Amino acid sequence: MAKSQAKVSELVGMIERGEIRLPEMQRRYVWRAPRVRDLLDSLYRGYPSGAILLWETDMEVPERDFSVTQQSSPYATNKLLLDGQQRLTSLSSVIRGEPVSVRGRKKPIDILFNLEHPDKLTLVTEVDEGEGDDELLEDEHDASDDEIQKRLDQMTFVVGSKKIASLPHWVSVTEVFKSESETEILKQVGITSFDDPRLEKYQTRLRQLKSIVNYEYRLDILERTLSYEEVTEIFVRVNSLGAKLRGSDLALAQITAKWRDSLKIFESFQAGCADRGFDSEIGTFVRTLVCFATGQSRFLTVNSLSLERLQDGWERAKSGLEYAINYLRSNIGVDSSTLLSSPYFLILLAVYGEQHGYEMDGETEAGLRRWFLAANAKGRYSRGSSESMLDQDLGALRRGLGVAGLIDNLKQQFGRVEIEADDLVSRSQRSGYFKTMFLAFRHDGARDWHSRLAIDFKHQGSSHKLQFHHIFPQAYLKGSYENKQINDIANLSFIGGKTNRRIRDKAPDDYLLTLSKEHGPAMFDAQCVPLAPELLQKDAYLQFMHERRQLIAQRLNKFLNGNE
Description:
Blueprint: E1 2-7, H1 8-17, E2 20-23, H2 33-44, E3 51-57, E4 63-64, E5 78-83, H3 85-96, E6 100-102, E7 105-107, E8 111-114, H4 135-138, H5 145-153, E9 157-159, H6 162-165, E10 170-172, H7 173-178, H8 182-188, H9 199-210, E11 216-222, H10 228-242, H11 247-258, H12 262-275, H13 282-294, H14 307-332, H15 344-355, H16 362-378, H17 386-398, H18 402-414, H19 432-443, E12 466-470, H20 474-477, H21 483-486, E13 492-496, H22 497-503, H23 508-519, H24 522-525, H25 541-560
Parallel strand pairs: 2-5, 3-11
Antiparallel strand pairs: 1-11, 2-4, 3-5, 6-7, 8-9, 8-10, 12-13
């Protein structure tokens, strides 16, 4: 294996010119903006950033596109990138000002730089990749403006937002890289005189930021004599040791090594599912293939599967997934993957469909519907060892236990199938219970409280696009109750954007009773909103939630059992 070095600017240029390509075995670009922010911070401070693994080869190798645009390479021999895709794609996007393409959508990576950052690193990189740093300004219910400003002042790089960009001494990292001199950037922050005391400090920091392009990565280059299969094995080993890729990504690499151009087949099927509302990761389809080929969900034996077995498993998996999506849409009303608490439900239903010849009697269908709705609400595959839970259910089907076996497994995990009011305590909008609330309310004819449009995720336009609404508005409760209490699903309902904006921070005993008189109570009954005036007072908020949880639990159980 040869070793070399290359500056960031050289590597970014090679990507732009198409001299570095991606082999089919690579996963897609997955970094979120906070990871890019932290990479820039490390390079700015001169911290080590790992090595880049390349393979130079003359053979024709199946490829996939980078998430940033590339020119056609004039060279017959390309370098294939095996390790470093996330870093180099991120740097290419920020330095060139090129958006990244993720699932067919292009979006820029907007990172801002604090010219007044502390000299010493004062923040530890977050382990959790949540939202961008604009959340510091837009979703800090408990923090004062002064506290938020103090937190921002301690940061060197943040994920961009209009609010932060409008603050003094914050500049776009991309604009810094694309500017020919510091002068235009300095003008943006109000430095127009050589006498300005900030001039020297800002110039030094801008030059240090631009010097990121001179950071040298170590390049490890695999020999041309290696076969595609050997390179795939190296790719899997490198990424397994570093735990940088998920099991599905590594399994996909092993599958594409045996089944050339299979990625295009998976991506085509993925696009078809997305068109029907089920925008799932390719990893879900890979796991489904493995389930059909091996009878279990783990990826441990993927490398031992023959090409014929992989192709047969995929044909069966594809039919099963098509059945699962049809069943969810037509029989349950789940018309979007956002209503699933885990994509593993697609896999289980796909296997169930094939094992039963895609046939069910009425009693079995009712049982399967009840199991799915309860398991989805309770988060059957969303906690801890989700693979173990899936394998347990696959085992029940394999032993011929059918729906009864699935329900028994659910009872072992949660004690019961039915939903109780206490199950809803402290649940947020991310909970499976919230998704099931939507399904039950829509089934019962819930409508927007002004337009009378039936609630639906697919509504277009800012006036009608569905939002979740705090019945007791956040601003109305702020200071009187904790954040967790305010955002509890017992305080959430589904209405359109225009109606939500009209209500704003009005007291519930004001707007709810007025709307009830104008439109009648049926629209509020459909969403289990109690209208007793004594429950709509601020000091009765906890009692309101208690009463509404009772109503929601009753409604969900009715929905689970298929009672009209």
